[in-house]
Every structure is written in structure tokens, then in C-alpha cells.
From TrEMBL, chains A, B:
SUPFAM superfamilies: L-sulfolactate dehydrogenase-like. Belongs to the LDH2/MDH2 oxidoreductase family. It holds the Pfam family Ldh_2. Gene3D superfamilies: 1.10.1530.10, Hypothetical oxidoreductase yiak, domain 2 (3.30.1370.60). Coiled coil: none annotated. InterPro entries: Mal/L-sulf/L-lact_DH-like_ah, Mal/L-sulf/L-lact_DH-like_NADP, Mal/L-sulfo/L-lacto_DH-like_sf, Malate/L-lactate_DH-like. GO terms for molecular function: oxidoreductase activity. This is Malate/lactate/ureidoglycolate dehydrogenase, LDH2 family. Keywords: Oxidoreductase. It comes from Arthrobacter subterraneus. The keyword Coiled coil does not apply.
Amino acid sequence: MKQYAADTVRKQILSVLAAWGMAPERAEITAEVMVDTDLLGIDSHGISMLPMYQRLIDAGKLDTGAEMVIEREGASTAVVNGGHNLGHSTMVTAMQLATAKARETGVGVVTVKRSHHFGAAGYYARIAVDSGQIGLVTSTTPTKTVVPTRGSRPVLGTNPLAFAAPSANADEPFLLDMSTSTVAMNKVKVYDYLSKPLPAGWVLDGLAQPVTDSHAAYSQLREQQHGGLSPLGGTEALSSHKGYGLALMVQILAGALAGATFAPLREPSDPNDIGHFCLVIDPAFFGDREQFAASVSQIVDTLRAEPPASPDRPVLVPGDIERTVRAERLEGGIPLSDALVGQIRDICTHNEAPFHL
Amino acid sequence: MKQYAADTVRKQILSVLAAWGMAPERAEITAEVMVDTDLLGIDSHGISMLPMYQRLIDAGKLDTGAEMVIEREGASTAVVNGGHNLGHSTMVTAMQLATAKARETGVGVVTVKRSHHFGAAGYYARIAVDSGQIGLVTSTTPTKTVVPTRGSRPVLGTNPLAFAAPSANADEPFLLDMSTSTVAMNKVKVYDYLSKPLPAGWVLDGLAQPVTDSHAAYSQLREQQHGGLSPLGGTEALSSHKGYGLALMVQILAGALAGATFAPLREPSDPNDIGHFCLVIDPAFFGDREQFAASVSQIVDTLRAEPPASPDRPVLVPGDIERTVRAERLEGGIPLSDALVGQIRDICTHNEAPFHL
């Protein structure tokens, strides 16, 4: 796959966002978040989303010119309306707001409604870490892909949850960024492409039995109204009710609390109305800031020093893999498939935007 | 198994706590929490803990006469020192504090250090619901039982997480109460007792391979220094790194933030120093309180109405099973094994406490 410098990818994203009429300062932030997501190796959530965003614009569901509005604000809380624009820059503002409130009162909670896709949740959790704080971010998802424990069809989204905390080493924060499903759709797609059997528990059929043929699984996920991705845990025997419960927790925080829609209750013609939830906690209100970061380091260093089950596969902590990929990609570039580059060329042509790839 | 009325169980717990020198108002609350836990069917965390508490007292590690102290307090935050007493009544106070702060500022975060076992985390999350708020509770655990993804030996605890939210029906709150491991030790013990093979992924050996022989698994968990319970997900192929990451999130909130010990860094002679974390959010700061409860009901009712994979096993939501068990036990009593009743008789004799079972 051809590799592109991060700056080139950023420039390309910016040119498309500008052509879509996004305000320059918002477009800068959005491009920055998207490139960072690609640098971390989360390929499904960065520049590869542009074709999906174009489809949303064409369907009249995404308003790239909209302003976000802070509808309500208190000492520790705020409510943001994203105006049906992309979620990236809205969420950067929301997290900055939560961070400022946590600086004053120890805690900040900000909810966002009427939003859209925002890339990877981890980016926003890390904003808290940049000021020495703890960040927790969740989001609803508009697509019904995950089957509840004991259920027969997809009704929940992959409802992500990200949690970040500073360690004593500023370059190595703790960063957990996960969907509450066992895996994302994209992983099944890759196994289908490679004709590799799936681990039993990634995808379930309408009788809650694991589907291990990756072709059958991927075609079921795309075309069938039964079965779906499993909640974290995989099967009921392996406690998928916990992953399912976490998905509902995310739905309650980013959906019910934020005032955003629950996907199964949304009509196809309704706006996506994705909701996000931001929590920031300032450790200085609970003890010494440096002591907290040192304690986080003690925890993660203890784990990294654990004897691994196989000598060539060390015990990692959340954030380690993404940090390695980021260093590699800053050096060697971001790999983009020819198919994706072709789609982006089409978007540029369609919008009369400069093509840079 | 013989069944005992909840009032009898409460009276028995109270008589032991009083003999241990616990202040009457604390003992009342502790007994109430423990009986409620037994009523919900969480048998491993209620009255059956008395023998363990006796061992902690005998080892000089549990101070049942200690007072809790609020060491620091702000508009949205507080830091509590549990004084090495049992965690139950300390946590009830901590959650009441968080609830009061959330009522004023929209959010309350209270941490607890120098605490002990507190039973089931869900009880405390529900305290927020009783005043129409959202509650999130996590706790560290002193025993190393869970092996990190790719690791070869137990280093983490089962680090529980509970989340509760009110629904439109006051008797049916959403209540998720889970360990971040696939299952708790107790479930392996039951399979060992029944000579039933374990689902592959509950217990891993030192090479990160599933152990399915329940006798081998249970004896490994009790006697060996390798392998252990798996984090939620089960195996690395089924994304156990997510359960592992959640266990670390709990450790950071209830341990590093609260200023409590990380079990692997504790010497056997050190106090247990368990830490807890409480978050309460008042939905009235983000919209209408009734609308929020109605949205939660819409979510859970949608799921309960989903067609199940097998007709006789309906789709449930977190809290449903415990509610059913509670109704049964309020009617028919709490089952206690003769072995446990014998142990409690011994405790009563040893402490000259009245025996009521």
C-alpha cells in the first residue's frame, strides 16, 4: 500500500472540508483529529471516513456549515448542541469546556447532542491528559450492529468508551479506547478478505450461536436482519451480558443523558442525532497531582514488567500499541489503499476541491 | 438448603457486628447492605463474608471500631478516609455526600481510601438512583486473581464496576453490577463442586491457554502462582485486552486517584487499604429529570421486547435477574448452607454474641 506523509493527508482532508463549507478553524481541528487517528493506526476512523461523510451530505443529513451552541452551563456541567455538524471539533470544544470546569471544581461533565461521527473516542479523552487530568468519553453510534445477550438480531451500536489518565511520563499516558462489542465490523471484513476463520464469539447468528466462517459472517452482518456482532465477552457463557451492560451504560450517558436518539427508535428519515458524553476529573482535588501520575506509572510499569505467557509477546498496557504505530507512521507515512485514494479523488472532483494524494 | 427470613439474617449480622465493637448506627447500615446483597442473590458478598471478616480482625487488619473521616471537601468533590473499617457504611456516607454535591453542582465525585470489603458495588450505585440521579461506583480488590492479557500469572483483582440509572418505573432502575473479569472465583468453585467442565476462557493457565477441567482450574486458582481468572473477553482472540483495560481503569479511579494501594505492590504485612470511587450525576442539569428517566425506560423496554434467540429465554437488562431473586427471597427466605451456619455459630461463640440462625 502506498504511504502518505501525515502533512499530505492533513492537507487533503482540509481541502475537502473547506470545499464542504466548513468554517476554517473547525476544519483545522477536524483535520488534525482525523490525521491523528490515522497516525495511531485506527484506519477505519480517519481519512477513510470521507466517503461516508460525503454520502451523509448528499442525503442532507450532515450540515458541515453549522455552528455548535452551548445551550446550558453550570459550574461543573454544560450541554452542547452540535447542530448536525461532524463531531470532531464540537467534541474538542466540549472536552476543553469539561477540562476548564474540572480545573475549577474538580469535575466537569459535558454532554453533546445533535452530533455526528467524531472519529476515535480516545483523542478526546487525551485532551484531559494534556492538562494533567483524567478523561472519560463515550458516544452513541447510529448503526445497529450488536446483538444483545440472548437476542436474535442487531439492535445496539458498538458504543465506544475511552478513558485516559496521565502517567509520570508525559509521552506515555494511559489510554483505553474500545468499543463495547468484542470486535468492530472492520475486523470481520479483514478476515473475510483474507478468508480466515473467525474466533468463535466475534459474530453470532440469529440463534446466538457463533459463526466462524468469515464469508458467511461478513455477508450476514451486511445483508441479514438476524444475528450480529457480539457484545464484549462474546457468548453468554463467557459473560457477554457484561459487554452488553456496558453498551447500555454508554447509551444511557451519551444518549439518554445527552438527549440524543436511541438508534432502534429512529426513523430512517430522522437526523442521525449522535450523542457524546465527556467526564473530566482533576486529580489535584483528591491529592497531589504528581503523586497521582506517579501512581499511574507504578501500575502500568508493574504490568509491563510482568513475565509474559510467550516470551516474544510482552504484556502491554492500553495505549502502547497506538504509540508504536504513531512513531512508525510519523516516520514512514500513513498507508492508504488505491481504492480509497480513488474515492477521495472522486470527492475532490465532485466538490471542485484540490486533490493532493 | 435451609432458608432464613431476611429479618433473621439481619439480626444475626447485627449481633456479630455489635460484638465486634462496631458503632450501632454503622452496624445498622452494614447489616442492611449485607442483607440486601443476600436478597439479590449475590451470596458470595453478604452474610457469607462474616468468616472472612473474622479472619481479618484476628490478623489485626480490620478495625471495626474505627470512624471514617472526610479529609477534604469541595463543591463537587470529597476525599474520605475509611480508617480500615469495613467499607459498607463508609460507602453509604460517601455516596450520600456525592449525591448531595451532584444536587448542587450537577456532579459529585467522592473517593475513599483505607477501606475494606464493601459487599456488592451495585448497592451504592443505587443510592444515587433513590434521588433520581445516575451513580457509578468502582472498587479495588486486595486479592490477585486475574491475569492480564498476554500475562502468565495473576496480578489484578476482579475490580468491580457498578452503574445505576433511574427509569420511569421507580422499582425498576437500570443496575449494572459487574466484575471486570469474565467470572468471579466463586463460579469456578461451583463448577468444581458439580464436576462440570468450564467454558473455555474463564480460567487461563500460565501459557494463556484456557483450562476447562474445573477441578484443575479451581486447584490452580487456589494453589498455583501461574495463570488465573481471565479479564472480561476471556482470551486475547476474544478481546480480553478490553476487560483488562477496564480493570486498569477501575484501578486508576479507585486506587491511584483515591490514594489506595495497588495489590501487587503491597507487602503481606501492610493493611489491605482498599479504595473506592463514587461518581454521581444529576440529570436535571442536562435536561428534564422525568424526560431522562423516560429515555432510560425506552431503551430498556426496547431491549426487553426484542425477539430472543430461544423463546424460553427472554432478553433481559441489567438488574432484572436480581429483582426477581429479591422478590423470591423476600417471600421464601435466604438460603444458607449448614456449613456457613456452623461457621457463624462458631463466630458467635468466639465473640459471645447471640446466635439467631
